[in-house]
Every structure is written in structure tokens, then in C-alpha cells.
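Go through this one:
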Amino acid sequence: MHQNKKKVLAAILAALMCLVLLVGGTLAWRDLSQHKTNELAGGDGNFYSVKLIDDFIPKDNWKQGETVDKKVSALNDGLTNGQFAPMFVRLQLKEFMEIAQRAQTFTPVRYMIDENGAFIYYATLAAAQSAYPNHTAAYLHDAIHNVDGWFIQTKADDKNGQYGAFLCTALTAGNPTPLLPGTSRQEAEADVNHQTKPNGECSYPVIAWEDAASAARVPNAVSDYVAVNLGTGVWSYQQWVAAGSAQTQKWVVLPDGYVYWLSPLNPGARTGNLVESLSLLAQPDGPFYYALHVDMDAVNLDDLGAWVTTGATAGMTQEILDALRGGPSTTSPTVPPSSGWVTIRKGDVNGDGRINNTDIAVLAAYLAGSDLGGSAFIHGNADMNDDGVIDQKDAVLLQELILNN
């Protein structure tokens, strides 16, 4: 009997040991037999290409009241094959005008005019003396009407003597004078240095806009003569804010002179016209020269920071940059889903369009090396200070962003 108890106890201990071994084996199980490699390769890097389009035919004899077409836009002429990137565009309009005021030379005495105010003159001296005996006739040039003849000097008791007029015999153009102080005509320099960037015409004064509420230009001496007619898709800053401060296929003007296309310009896409035409409002008193110069600044997504500015328009510019980096869009999606491009919006770590505590949790998991639970992680959105490194500094900045907003 005692021997049987020992056998039973041994069996129980063996069973317990097997159970312990089984449990221990389950906790320490390891399989190093499985492995796979997924290989991906790429060709060339991304390409960038934007062209400034200026549809304009020069006009040499521009008259008051005439309007000439000048259509200004920008085109991303990259191929839609996935290798060309969306671009961002802003423009500045610059202008120059000079007038050579005419000097008029008049006779020292009056010459006879008729009841309609026209000067009386004759082809020959004999004809003049026959028509007006006892008068002095002089062979003169009427510079206003470009005619030559024998003109009759008036006397006090002539029928139209009291209406006699001094005759303009010469029109002489003076030296051209710029309307805006400190400017000079750069046409010749630009022709010589056509391949240079920038050339002298880039130094012309920038057309400024009145204020954030208006897309009207600031009046100056040039605007008294020339109207720059903008396209229908041009908004003031306040118009854009009232519409939601979102991406939209419109031009938005700021008081500092920059005009922004408020949408990524995809390959094959073209902006609307910033400028449609030019009108001559008043005829200058002499030969004149006018030039409208357009400067384009195009960048890719990574270089939008180059547009950051200081001064009175810094806040407006930053709001525009924020919208271009990923604000809500009032148009169809500007970047096709198949292109592989991600819109950068600082703080939206998981790319769901919102910045909240979920983004803090995803960033914390990333920093801890933990499983992200299937959540997306957008490196550019998490790099809050743009130093190229995702670390605790970015977490602090993200927390401050959420607390402050």
C-alpha cells in the first residue's frame, strides 16, 4: 500500500512538472524561421516646371480710351506621369512710365482766324495780299495742323481781329521724365541682358494694393494714365477670409504687392488670368513709354517657408501659407490620390484632417517605439520645428498648439 502511494505521488509530480514545463514553454516560445524581404526601387527624383504666360501684342500708337489685351497667368507644364510635382505660385506686378512733355513755340503776334476758329492762310503771297490789302502776310508752319502757307497778321479794327490767335509754329519733345521719382527706363538694359535673371526691369516699382479689404491698386502718378484691369478671379485678402480662408482657385492680393494663387498648381494645370488688359485713361502731353513687368515666384511644397515675411502683412502671409500647406479646400482635391503626394499640415500627425489629442497619442507611441495601432504617421506633420528630427521637442510644440487653439 505504501509503495502504491509513492507511485501515485510520483505520477502526480510528473504531471505537475509536465504542466510547469508546458506553461514555461508557452511563455518562452520563439520562432526565428520566418523572414521575407519586400524590395522597392525608384528612378529619377521629382521634376518641377512652371511657365509664366503673357499673352500680349505690343502697340506703338496707343490712344486715350483704347484697351489692349494683356493676359497674365501661370502654367505647370509638367507631365502628368507622376514624376512632376504640384507647385505654388505668387506674382508681383511692376510698372514704369515716362513722358516727354512737348514744348510749343508760338508767334509773337496774332494771326487771323475765321468764325469757326480756323487760321486763315493762302498758298501764295499774292493771294493773301489780294484778300487782305494793307495787311502783313508771313509764310509760316502750323505745327498743330501740320500745314504751311501765308498767314495774315491781324489789326485791331479787323472783323475778327479781336479773335486772332498766336500760331504754334513748332512742337518739340523734351527729355523723357519718369512719373515715379527714382525710377529709370530699363528697356535697353533688359534687351541686352535678356538671358540674365534678374535684369533691370525687375527693379521697377511694385504695384501695391490699397488694403486688405480691396483689390484696387494704390493710386500714383502712373494710375492717372493707365488702368491695369484684373481678371474676374482676383480677391482681396478679406474676401478670401470671408470665404473661409481655404484653398481655392483664385488669386488673392496682399497690400505688400504679392498676389498668391491659393491652390497647388498640378502638372498640366493653369491659373486663371491675374491681368486681362490695359487701358489708357488719359492722353499724355507728349510721347510716352509704359511698361508692365511681371515677376513670378514658384516653389514646391518643401520651399513654401521661403515666402515667410515680416512686417504688416506677416500674419496675412502666414495664413495663406497655412492654407496652402493643408487647409480645407473649397475646390475639388488639388492633388490626385494616385500621385503619392501628402499635404503638410503641422500637428496633424495621423493625417485625418484634425489636430487633437489623438495626434499626441500617435506621436507619443512613435517616440516610445510602440505599435501605432494601424494609425498613419506623417513625418512632415510631426516635425513641428522643421529640424528634420522627430523628438520630444516636437511633442511639446504639438501640446502647445492644441492648448492654444
